[in-house]
Amino acid sequence: MEQFIPLISEVGFPIAVTLFLLYRIEAKLDNVVQSIQSLPERLSGK
Hints:
Radius of gyration: 20 Å
Shape: rod-shaped
Largest sheet: none
Distance between the termini: 66 Å
Oligomer: single chain
């Protein structure tokens, strides 16, 4: 059990940061996808 505590502290923090950043990037990617999908409508409207 004592061996797992350093492992969790060394690996757990990078995993938590990675998950947080992926969550934030996902929201931004949704906006990009929506913009790309609406682009043909905007171009044909001109």
